[in-house]
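User: Show me an example of a complex going from sequences to structure tokens.

Assistant: Sure. Here are the input components:
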Amino acid sequence: MTEARFDVLCMGNAIVDVLTTVPDTFLSQNGLNKGAMTLIDANRAEELYGLMGPAIERSGGSVANSAAGVGALGGRCAYVGKVANDQLGEIFRHDVQSLGIHFETGPLLGGAPTARSFIFVTPDAERTMQTFLGACTELTPEDVPEDLPASAKFSYLEGYLWDKPQAKAALSKAARIARAAGREVALSLSDQFCVDRHRDEFRTLINDHITVLIGNEDEVKSLVEVDSIEAALPLLRPMAGMIAITRSDRPTLVLRGEETVEVPVPAVAKVVDTTGAGDMFAAGFLWGLTNDLPLAKCARAGQVCAGEVISHIGPRPDADIRAMVRAERGL
Amino acid sequence: MTEARFDVLCMGNAIVDVLTTVPDTFLSQNGLNKGAMTLIDANRAEELYGLMGPAIERSGGSVANSAAGVGALGGRCAYVGKVANDQLGEIFRHDVQSLGIHFETGPLLGGAPTARSFIFVTPDAERTMQTFLGACTELTPEDVPEDLPASAKFSYLEGYLWDKPQAKAALSKAARIARAAGREVALSLSDQFCVDRHRDEFRTLINDHITVLIGNEDEVKSLVEVDSIEAALPLLRPMAGMIAITRSDRPTLVLRGEETVEVPVPAVAKVVDTTGAGDMFAAGFLWGLTNDLPLAKCARAGQVCAGEVISHIGPRPDADIRAMVRAERGL
């Protein structure tokens, strides 16, 4: 196996977040499913935007957030995702490339605009997402250069892309190439409702290609269709070589064969907005793996990154997470 | 005089801010004038964007920020400013209109894109602005409906618009209509370098039309060309019926005839980003005037709004400034 050119290749929906704070009544009045990511069409996007107050725009997209995290940690990172040839697309591209991340996916010309996700943050810091996928849905296997998955230690795939056949085909292609080259392939389960939609396909994908599975408690329980994490663990264990399970402020679990590593979560002074928590955990965890750190340190790196991002509005780091993670490495 | 339809009509450059944090060395390496607003062209904008890290996009524009503040305080507000028919223009329009602010200026079609201001926030919370005016420069007198300045208690004009002849003509038109209708006209001095560029015209404008002048210490000193605020006060006093002077964390001064009201500034726990401080002071101050509050209370309302906006990234309020100002009214 040749020397890897990248630590992590990230592939996902290229989205600009439109973040605003709302009272809980806003969610109930507009029939929004709290805590979940719901796909909406262009008309509903226009309608919701008309209902919401002033917002902040910030590049997002689940696995793109992870890419930003890996880049901010100093990892060598590449990204594949589809924006349109418009202002939001330029913003997204800038924010990824300015972190030194390789991002050469061509923009969609003359089609749907760049994706946006309206993110409603409630006083309890929970985020509820309504996503118009726009140009994202036009990601195709042709957007995956043959040499990219083969030259990255890890390919990290976004489960949300299973919502569109062409995008799914693009990720499957990347997974096949990566595994054929002897590389690791990680999957984000993205969202429990996403797992509900694609459970059987996810199980097949995981069985065929995935070496590292990353999800939260609700997502992994949905994957194996049981109600308790205790019942889920023995079912999950044989599915992938390594499984990292985040559980909000309860200890993170990492399964590897029969081994279980349980890592308590450091306290966060004030949780403002949980957007990006799982994405930043994945960034720190994968960065740790690419640096051959012990599993507990990988998980702690993820926790530190997640702790930073939930302490402010927006899904990407504001503070110097590289220094924060380095300070924790004495773990 | 008929009943006013609006409390404040705000007119200014319609800008989307692109905010990022940088070390001081970034400013020196790129020859940026710390603390100032500098105009840049499209090429320089592209170059600077390529040099800067990930950013947050948020609607800005000095007097547009004040409009957002007046709207958030519950004032009846209108806005006149020029965006393009593009995504950033839609974002700007949404963020203004979603506060219930009347904003009907038609977008520029097929011309320059919506203005953006790159705002570099240094660790000392100072902001340095590099602004590409784009569509803003196409604001013309035709964009000022005859009935608007006549139907607002106050028209609030942005000094920055003197940088472009047509925009200047638009504001002069509004000032003339407002005064002819017996309304108040307020001017923001915007920036000490803006005052340097337009000192003589500003003096003529103030003499002819302005009843309320708003600026910080550096701006008013530049206006009367003296080095100390003590020397400036007697020169300023006869220029306008009322003059409000902000002085960072030192007491705000309000001059009215021979009267001087000095209002100490409440402490702010942590200053994060001073972007919008002057704009939000103006919002609270004008809102107080439209509610016939005593001058000290007007100034305090302005200080409370400014205190909120400097405690987070971005030029517009995050918290409920209406409740915050109401809590201070026992002053």
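The lines above are the inputs; the final block is the predicted structure for all two components together. Chain A touches chain B at residues 21, 49-50, 52-59, 68, 86-88, 91, 94-95, 98-99, 113, 313-314, 316, 318 (CB under 8 Å).
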